[in-house]
Amino acid sequence: MHREWLSGIIEHVDQNPKELHPVLKEFKDMIEGDTRIYLLFSSMFEQIPKKKPYSKSPTGLRQVRDYKHMLSVLNHLLTTAPSWNDKSHRVGLVGLPINAMLDWPMGTSSGFAAFLDPKVNAMLKKVLNAWGEFLCSPASADVLGNDSQGWLGETGKTDLTATANNGETAYSFEDMYVCDPSAEHYGFKSWDAFFTRAFREGIRPVAAADNPNVIANVCESKPYNIAQGVKARDHFWLKGQPYSLIDMLAHDELAEHFVGGIVYQAFLNALSYHRWHSPVSGKIVKAYVQDGTYYSEPIFEDFTEFHGADKANESTGQGYITATATRAILFIEADNPAIGLMAVLAVGMAEVSTCDITVKEGQHVEKGDQIGMFHFGGSTHCLLFRKGVDVHGFPKPGRDHNVPVRSELAVVRS
Questions:
Q1: Which residue has the higher pLDDT, 282 or 91?
Q2: What is the mean pLDDT of residues 375-403?
């Protein structure tokens, strides 16, 4: 059992060296066989200030200090599911052990360059896919126990339940989620089965199912931003992180339809429900996953001896990652002509290695139908509306609780 989360992992790795997993041997060979990548992976750790608090991890404990040590820790994580820990929950990194390990180095100038590199991201995809295989295995369910490190322990289950109740209801975990409390691990056969758990029928009814002017919330999430008059291209890497449609939509020919329109963005944390549901009734025009980055932060988060690192972790660069991170892109032609063509962007953050689309192009969906899901970590999503669509009533950023999935998100005037 891990002690104090990431510190326990590092201590275990240091005391129990073992041969690297084949995918990590490949990663090591890539770093050492490419002078540019070797420079970046060496200097990103050297650029971390050698003073408190950066001499320790974001959770206040021992830090990884070079790429070889990083690979050794990754080697352990590939056969370990994220465990619950109260301390990691308080700093916003519960369920994100790799993100926690890389939190300081990816905030440096060398880390910025390294984690934008296509070759590095192709390698990270292999690493995360290998980890994903473990997280789908029965062995990964070990962290779902009822002890202090278990997600179904007293504190973990209490926080999961509070998150799902949204400050509005008082259901138990068993009342809300499809599970079997009498079975081991509540019937969840793997970490991924737990992470992608479904709500019971009736817990999240579809808002105004017969009213096509009411848009349903795609994900169980907290509002992050609402932008109007969005430009085709903008400087998304700057502090304000303006949306850049062409980059968000991966240069898709349909991107031009949304110039001057509206973007609504909201954030899902690791405790939330992670399936996506259609905001409208309509036809799936296009649906595909665009490969991108996994651990890239905007350059304004660089830090030095004199400028501290950002404390908001992966949530700070949410606007930025809509243009850079691995993401699912779905275009839907709404049955309601007042909406017409709209888009859903499901963006993977940090540990998310799979944006899983569960509908096909040409398929007709009803408002509230499942269209996909995230696997393995926190995430964010956007809804895009064309210029001229008169949509209003979005929930404002700054809420304490999630907006329930499939509830009323906004209304279109027809």
A1: 282
A2: 92
Task: Please return the burial class of 254, using the count of CB atoms within 10 Å of its CB with bins 0-12, 13-18 and 19+.
Answer: middle
Sort strands 364-365 and 354-357 into parallel, antiparallel or unpaired: unpaired
Top pLDDT among 258 and 64 is at: 258
197: left (phi over 0), alpha (psi -120 to 50) or beta: beta
DSSP, res 299: G
Cα–Cα nearest to 353, from 133, 93, 102, 132: 132
Bridge partners for 357 per DSSP: 372
**Three-state secondary structure call for residue 288:** strand
- β-strand pairing of 370-375 with 214-216: unpaired
Specify which residues 384 forms β-bridges with: 263, 343
Rounded to whole angstroms, the Cα distance separating 126 from 32 reads 17
pLDDT digits (tens, 9 = 90+) for 241-258: 899 999 999 999 999 999
| Partners of 411 in the β-ladder | 214, 392
What is the distance between the alpha carbons of residues 240 and 324, in angstroms, rounded to a whole number? 16
What pairing do the DSSP bridges indicate for beta strands 262-268 and 379-385?
antiparallel
